[in-house]
Write a structure and sequence with these properties.
The longest helix has 17 residues. Helix content is 41%, strand content 19%. A 4-stranded parallel beta sheet has the order 1-12-10-11, sandwiched between helices.
Length: 274
């Protein structure tokens, strides 16, 4: 039988678990559909489970004139929150507290005259949300860049890797008269990455389980593959192929922060059966 080793920290992170609990409780208590602006979390399987329990993603809140709306874990756009309040729509704030921390520091920096830089992916909903609360008066960087500004303030996307964050900060330090930095990378992201790297160094294969649309899972997979070339990013056990495991005796499993532990357990059981 193949030995399967999972990282110690696996399943939902604090922020995702909190968001899922909030919307499920609301759907049950209100006995009506709870709408989330975009998927509540970046895991297609869990989004479908939530849909079956009365939590439905929508793309356009401006088309809503009634019903309950939930702020997803990544946060929503400032104009969307303003619309919800103006229309008096009942709402559930499921934004991750650590995402709110990024927003708080970014607004503080702007208020005190700093040119605000968000280290992260400009396409990620968390980054887009934070930028919107700055009235788009900020920059998003994911590599070295030089800015001519007397005062520069930096925050980070919560799921960014430490190397990219350090690269952005170091490049800005060369030209800034004053540089103020808030490292807002989520601790859960750091811990899971460290555990996955350690595990990748002592197994023959790594499986990283999570949504293909999940930023933190994709980054985790790239990190792991750099250490253990025999690595696969999968969403469910149905993607596993028996031929992958020919001659393999020890397999490591890591998961993204939005991956349900039940899916990871099913992957582990399928691997053991091979």
């Amino acid at each position: 039988m193949i030995e399967v080793i999972k990282t110690a920290h696996i399943g939902f992170c604090f922020g995702v678990n909190r968001a899922v609990s909030k919307v499920l409780k609301a759907a049950e208590e209100r006995k009506e559909t709870v709408h989330t602006l975009g998927p509540l979390l970046h895991n297609p399987q869990m989004v479908e489970i939530l849909r079956q329990k009365g939590v439905e993603p929508i793309d356009d809140v401006f088309a809503m004139d009634k019903g309950v709306v939930a702020f997803r874990s990544h946060g929503i756009m400032k104009k969307e929150e303003e619309h919800i309040k103006a229309r008096g729509l009942p709402s559930i704030d499921a934004t991750c507290p650590f995402v709110k921390r990024v927003r708080k520091y970014a607004l503080y920096l702007k208020k005190h005259g700093y040119k605000v830089v968000i280290a992260g992916d400009e396409r990620h909903p968390e980054v887009r949300s934070v930028l919107s609360y700055l009235d788009n008066d900020g920059m998003v960087l994911d590599n070295s860049f030089s800015i001519e500004a007397k005062k520069i303030g930096v925050v980070s996307q919560t799921t960014l890797d430490q190397e990219t964050f350090s690269e952005v900060v170091s490049s800005l330090a060369r030209s800034a008269g004053e540089l103020r930095v808030y490292n807002t990378i989520c601790e859960s992201t750091k811990v899971r990455r460290a555990e996955a790297l350690e595990l990748a160094g002592r197994v023959e294969m790594m499986l990283v389980v999570g949504g293909k649309n999940s930023s933190n899972t994709t980054k985790l997979f790239r990190t792991v593959k750099a250490v253990q070339p025999l690595a696969y990013h999968i969403e469910t056990e149905d993607e596993l192929r028996p031929e992958w495991f020919a001659g393999i005796r020890k397999v490591g499993i890591a998961g993204g922060t939005s991956t349900p532990e039940a899916i990871i357990d099913r992957v582990a059981r399928r691997v053991k059966n091979f």
